[in-house]
Specification:
By secondary structure, the chain is an alpha/beta fold. The protein contains 15 helices and 16 strands.
Length: about 375
Amino acid sequence: MTAFGFDFMAREGMARRGRVTTAHGVMDTPAFMPVGTAAAVKAMRPEEVAATGAQTILGNTYHLMLRPGAELIAELGGLHRFMAWPGPILTDSGGFQVMSLTDLRKLDERGVVFRSHIDGQKHELTPERSVEIQDLLDADITMQFDECPPADWPEHKVADSTRLSLRWAERCRTAFRERPGYGLFGIVQGGVFDALRRESARALAAMDFPGYAVGGLAVGEGQAEMFRVLEVTTPELPEHKPRYLMGVGRPEDILGAVARGIDMFDCVLPTRSGRMAQGFTSQGEVNLRNARHRRDPRPLDAACGCSTCTTHSRAYLHHLFRAKEILAPMLVTHHNVHYYQHLMRGIRAAIQDGGFAAFAEEVTARRAEGDIAAL
């Protein structure tokens, strides 16, 4: 079988053009991975997701362990077969979701005991169990189990949390079953504190993970602070391993993070926004519920070649949302996922050609102009 690995193809400054090879195929980077939390990218069929150019999608340990259960998915042939997605799958460890259950969980050195948000049943999630579940799911990329501290924690609490996550990382590394094409990522924590970020990154680099993620950002600290933390963190990570910024984000966030050495992204924004009538376009975001679209014959994005934009008008999309037709979120979600993949293709081509800085400036400026037009 093919070994898990990361190959460089080009770079411009800190921006990198590469390719991650996994057991179920390749992922060209920089890459945006649509989120399929419960074994489905909401409002899209797997073949539609693939048609946008997406190569890798996400699943979630917490949600899938509760329903339908990791053992059942393994019995049915693994997550790829279960959800009919043949390409690579990355699974979140469940740590972020468990940590958000403030009133339903108890954390100690061993792991976390929590009650299901579905039926109140008690469960335990440890580093070892998280890795086991992700193995049962047959995830190409497994994430370490970690604690994601809130943005408002003081430095001493973030320090304790960061070091706990490092101890859990060592246990995940031991528990991970090595096999060709599969990789385990360590997760850098440390809040907005430079020394803690460096400590976490250096300790994880010493553990020699196949890949590295930066967690605990985009949780309310603001874009400027996020970029500053990345400037501190990415130089501490091995150059020959992929870097993944978790839960990010908006197009401008992605462009700025690519410029600071990040290779992989995921976020619920394209799909969640699609269900809420918000379209991401080359000229900024568009709220299709606004009355100004009632007679608007234009496509959602004139620069887009997706089936939504080549077939339907803003007036029609506006009508569908007003009529509460299920087709409305399907069409806009499809467009949004397509838009993100088109953006990533542009980023990769720009790095390859040595024009990424100019590309990022142009995309940002055009989106800032907006699309208000007198009709």
